[in-house]
Amino acid sequence: MDHLGVGEDVLREYLTHGDSELLANVIYMTCRLSRTSWVPISAPPSLSKFDIRDTLPEVQHEFCSV
Question: What is the pTM of this model?
């Protein structure tokens, strides 16, 4: 919750909507990496099974803005 900057109620909503929590963490990590010297990394295998269609619209919009 702390690193995502969300409250417990928002985190619960993420957890009940498919991959919303995973997408929120991808957004967080992308923002953190963009502030450091870029080091290429491999995507974890779980990311290849990621389904953005089953995430909250507000998290999708945040991802698009990043």
Answer: 0.63
